[in-house]
């Protein structure tokens, strides 16, 4: 591709407005995740939870849809309910929630689950994720220009807030799984948002000297690529091999393996000696 054409496309992507299409895609994926994570709500024929607890179901979906903003405001000392002041966003998210859970014959849910539609919605949602990460980094950098750790944290939270709040969201729906959370088992999206936040911080500190549109577009491609890989090929976490290598080298994994090898060799030698002694006896 011609570099100028690529730059023009990148500049167009940076100027995209998130409302309504990208926000609707985000709300759709969030409501879909709540439905598939809810007991008795993972199929077209069994809708017990949403029928018996509609208010709880709506609250859970709204919390998931606006989790990034809620957490970011909490960490920055601002009101957690600020994301709910925009009635247009709330009404749009509510309309999506209603269609996902209560559409006639579950037609909307079936369409969203259809792979071509899911690929399109996932692409729009990941584009919006990149926008949220960049917005979080930019906003925090204005408040705390040199607090790079805080900037990275807020950028990550803005992009992956739904995963971080999943334990609390599950608690609202009557599910308690304390050993499954983003701190113990970080998801691909949390790791990707962390990397994207670091990239944006490096851009702002002039460590990475490249046009902003190219960097932003690269992050969008980064998110979209991993989303499509997950949907099409089942690649859920490509970072695992690098994490295992890092842990083996720097976090004691190599030394633990050596200790186990030495212990096993000693135990085998001891067992061999005991067998020899028994034969001599």
Automatic annotation (TrEMBL):
Its main location: membrane. One of its GO terms (molecular function) is identical protein binding. InterPro entries: TRIC_channel (IPR007866). It is found in: Endomembrane system. It comes from the Eukaryota. The keyword Membrane applies. It is a multi-pass membrane protein. GO terms for cellular component: endomembrane system; membrane. Keywords: Ion channel, Ion transport, Membrane, Potassium, Potassium channel, Potassium transport, Transmembrane, Transmembrane helix, Transport. Belongs to the TMEM38 family. PANTHER family: GH25683P (PTHR12454:SF11), TRIMERIC INTRACELLULAR CATION CHANNEL (PTHR12454). This is Trimeric intracellular cation channel type 1B.1. It comes from Octopus sinensis.
